[in-house]
Amino acid sequence: MLAGLCLALLPAVTPPLSGDAGSPSAATLLPRAQAQQKLLRIGAIPDQNPEKLNRLYGQVASELSRQLGVKVQYVPVTDYAAAVSAFRTGSLDLVWFGGLTGVQARLQKPGAQVIAQRDIDAAFTSVFIANAASGLKPIQNQKQLTVLEGRRFTFGSESSTSGRLMPQWFLSQAGVQLKDFAGGAPGFSGSHDATIALVQSGTYDAGVVNEQVWKANLRSGKTDRKKVFVLWRTPGYPDYHWIGQPDLDKRFGAGFTAKLRGAILSWRPSNPQQKQILELFGAQQFTGAKASDYQRIEQVGRQVGKIR
Q1: Which of 3, 96, 105, 190 is least surrounded by Cβ atoms within 10 Å, i.e. has the fewest?
Q2: DSSP H helical segments within the chain, as ranges?
Q3: Distance between CA 237 and CA 273 in Å, rounded?
């Protein structure tokens, strides 16, 4: 098991995308003190394929720019650890984190503000999936996760809440340890989309993914129900949320953090642009959230060695 926080060096970032409200700027590569003071740089853990992330956060950047009256630029990062590192160093001002990475980011940046979560994030779920040719059958309860012992199994990213942390905890509660999988260890696909593809292809007998991504793949037709199925659905747990830097009011003016929170909480399906954003997020709206909502995630993170 990997232990400790991912204290990576400042990650390389790629140029902003055509859908971003901000124009390309070398500021994304410079220390915060040298960056444009009125440029709000947003990022997100890369939990899905880049095409969808580019489309989603390009639209988020445009909408926030319109509502807040500042330039907003989406800055992609390479992996989950890079998102945490970029927030720690100040290269990103507002980041869409999972439960675990959000806790890691706040612990590394005292004063960081939990801005909002989706309506589905208070009780988020993962699904264990299996290849139809594996011989596995749907199970009825957590204790039956023992059917995965000796199987080729993959998580998503090593720092994913829904694709690793909470599923690993549910497995451990059933008595299944990482060494019990085929080869003495699980795989780590890097993202939910990749996990689904690998299980569907038969590279792995089973895996675990964010249920929202699973549903999206079913709707899009990328997932073949004849080749891969849901083995078991987890109980709910707190997950994704927006986190902002502690000095946003200082940089953008008094009350900016509250204005940012209000903008995100105001998004509704009745607005065409906001409807597209919410659909890509798999939600009806965003709701208020606070750091204490993620105490369980921090506790589990410490138990499995992802937080020290």
Answers
A1: 3
A2: 50-68, 80-89, 99-108, 166-173, 192-201, 211-220, 248-252, 256-265, 272-281, 295-303
A3: 29
Per-residue pLDDT tens digits for 106-119: 999 999 999 999 99
Residues 145 and 197 both lie in one domain: yes
Residue 16 lies in a domain: no
* Residue labelled with tokens 């098991």: 1
> In this predicted model, what pLDDT tens digit does every residue of 182-231 receive, in sequence order?
999 999 999 999 999 999 999 999 999 999 999 999 999 999 999 999 99
Beta carbons of 274 and 63 less than 8 angstroms apart:
yes
User: What is the CATH number for 206?
Assistant: 3.40.190.10
pLDDT above 50: residue 10: no
Structural domain includes residue 180:
yes
Q: Rounded to whole angstroms, how far apart are CA atoms 304 and 296?
A: 12
What's at 135, amino acid-wise? G
| Beta-bridge mates of residue 131 | 228
CA dist., res. 37 & res. 120, Å (int):
34
Q: Round to whole Å and give the CA distance between 229 and 139.
A: 11
Query: Using CA atoms, how far apart are residues 18 and 97, in angstroms rounded to an integer?
Result: 23
Q: Which domain holds residue 246?
A: 26-121+239-303
pLDDT on residue 308? 84
User: Which of 156, 29, 151, 128 minimizes the C-alpha distance to 86?
Assistant: 29
The per-residue b/e assignment along 278-302, b for 16 or more CB within 10 angstroms, e otherwise, is bebbbbebbbebeeebbeebbebbe
Q: What does R_g of the chain's alpha carbons equal in angstroms?
A: 19
Give the span between the Cα atoms of 214 and 234, in whole angstroms. Answer: 13
Number of domains in the chain: 2
- Check whether residue 223 and residue 132 sit in a common domain: yes
